[in-house]
User: Fold these one by one.
Assistant:
Number 1:
Amino acid sequence: MYGYFFSYLLIPLAVIGGIVYFIVYLARRNKQVNAPLFDWRRFGVGVAISIVLPCFIGFATSAVFNELNKTDSFITMVIAALIFLIVGLVIGHHSVISVSLIIGSIFAFIYALSINFESIPPSIMTILAGLGLALLIFFAYKKFQEKEGK
Amino acid sequence: MKFKKFVIGLAIFILTILFIVFVNRTINPRPEYKYCGGYEISPFGQSYNSCSTSYNNALEDFKEKSFFIITVLSMLAIISGVLVKSVAPVSWGLVMAGLALILYIFIANFEEIDKPYRAIISGLALAILIWLAYAKLGDKEAIQETGSSSIPPVSTSAPLPSNKS
């Protein structure tokens, strides 16, 4: 039941929200550098990366494990999404690659969660939720600390 | 003038999609179910099972080829749209057509698992897109700026610490 909820409600909302965020981000970014208000090339390539990345993670995982609906596949997908998320956060916040890698890895994580929501053991979910929370607190702390330092 | 540009861009968008779809249909025709092996099959006939199996195999083959052809052509459309930056309608028409087809083909084939070549093709597509963003859309400069600003410059006037032991 929760899997259907994630599949039919959360994923479309995440996709729409991600695209809207991307448009707003690129429009603001282009204002700052006196460029045209909206660059279709940046938008197109960014959205393409955001779509291809979760598909790549899913195809690669299914090629190794033959199915996506099991714990090993879920952990592999989450780790791959986390790696791309960290790469996106590390290489800089003002580029098409970083924004699209971040959005694409979030899509991949949501997809992995939605198809495995009912089959994952609660212990693994607890560990993953704890790790995600720790990561978010770490980055939020680091970000706010940097702002206060400036 | 802007309206004309928009219409031209829209026409390029639609025609690019049609072109890629029909190239795929020409190179890779869809197998027909009704006339399997040259004769019309009935659900209760002897040849139904074997014909159904061969049809399913042909359909799998068709899907695999379609995935490859449409992905490659969509990537070519996106690359050419990014490279042709001087004419805006051509650029956005090609980029959006490639994006729409990539969106369609990846979502349509996402449930098809256990296919390693799809991982290879999508990985190559991802690498090309990242290279495109890095080399042609200003990411190289942005990443270099971020990299240089995160490391503080070394002061040359300050004396180096000496080892007094």
Note: The interface with chain A takes residues 78, 81-82, 85, 88, 91-92, 95-96, 98-99, 102-103, 106, 110, 113-116, 118-119, 122-123, 125-126, 129-130, 132-134, 136-139, 142-143, 145-147 of chain B (CB under 8 Å).
Number 2:
Amino acid sequence: MSPLVERLFAWLGRACAVLVASVPLAAGGVLIWLVLRALAGAPGAVPAGPLPSLIAASVGTAILAALVGGAIGVGCAVTAEELAPSPMRTAIATAIGFLGAMPAVAFGWFAASIVAPAIANAPGALAPYAGAAAILAAMAAPTACALTTRALRRMPDAIRQAAAALGASRLQTTVMVLIPALRRQIAAAGLAAFARAVVEATTVQTLFAALANANGSVSATATSWILASATVAPSVSVVERLAPAALFAMLIAFGCALLVSREFRGLQWA
Amino acid sequence: MGVSALAMPRDAGSRPAAQIAGGLLAWISAIVVVLAVAALIVIVARAGWQNIVWVFETESDAGIGAALVSTLAVLGLALPPAIALSFCAGAAAAEPAIGAGAGRFLAATLRFGPSLPSTALGLAALGLITANPALERSVQANPLVAAAIVLVALNLPIMTARFRTVMRAVPPEWRVAAFAAGAPPVSMFFGVVVPRAMPGIIAVVLHGVGQMLGETAAVAIVLSVSTGVKFVNHALTFAPAPLPVHLWQRLAVGHPDPSSAPSAASETLILLVAIVVLRFVGRVLARRRRPSGAGA
């Protein structure tokens, strides 16, 4: 390879690196610009409106989904990596991989076809959010499973062998040694599941639309509100009204990602 | 943490109930997931298969055929630039000799960039489009190009992070050996790292295809500028939406027609089959192309 080609590829790589790095920063910059422009156009033009309640709905639903989905994901990872025999491991990995690869709109079909009819007649205003949390838990479980699997695989075999030398069974080693040792990583996996659930829009909006058609209920989370409003009436004023909710979703996602990456980068066993 | 993990708890044998409960919970989680996925596959296959021929045959206006064509068009427009840009950026992030300061900057943003929510990106794009009438006219004229650009922007950080991961998985000894033999950085990268990382690179590309194939929110938000989601599929003269957006419109826009439920099931089945096939092909290709010593 000639020196010119060497140099060209290096510069191309650097240019692409700057371009890729600028995508999330640019998206955040545009959202901040939209919020500031709305505020500058007319003081108080960005009404708090439903935003606090939407954020509360988003966070509450995502916490419930992360608790359930995180526990399921961690359980699957522990079973597949430490406890199950080989054929069962394959079945678990395939099933969780299938859930992880499923697009949000396919979850939306299940939400509209199965979950919505099941909870349409349930009493209480929180029933739609419980249904959303159930679907989001299924979406968040693969995230928690993948991170826990990674943490378990990075655990040196010497730990398992030391426990076995002391007479511990595989179950004892898992429950009494591995899980306590990985509690920070498991918490980070739960946080990643929360981040996955809190930004999800398509599935939740599909469920809420199906429920609205079935029983007239009006439910929304921050991101489902963005999707529903932006697609029905795309205009400058609507975008400015939705920008704070999008900024909230982005900040939550970025904050959780930073915390999770910090925890998983720090997993060093010297 | 390491020290505490190495020490076997003194009362390890005295808490059988906790051990059994922990193991039982893990097993129950795994069994629930396996059974739930099996049930989901059966449900969608039963609901979708009955109408799949009808769905293909009667599609002049609300069609899955048009949706598939536009899906392929968007993928065709979005994939090449996404793969090329993220591959080069991944190389810069994985190889300090190539990326230098830009690579370090990218590596820092990759800690959070891949988690960019699609609704946030879609709304930012919509904000730019609606604020600029010329851009809005351009999007109305070329909606699929706009959808492809949004897909590229959304997937660039994710694909770059994955490329970097598979490239960094190549053991550093290979690089050291190449440098010791006098290879310059880019020659070392293409001669040593890329062949070793080829199975991972194929997997990243197919993951990217799957991700783009299933993306809904950002594309739906941007496409709403061009036609309004309620009219997207009324005629082929309107820009048809990609399959996931088309499915989402059936399910969630306005007052969904109950008679379209079988079509929605068929579309879900097609989407899932496409993604499962992609994953299978990815695995097969990755196994076939694994060079000797790749797992070292």
Note: The CA atoms of residues 119 and 281 of chain B lie 30 Å apart.
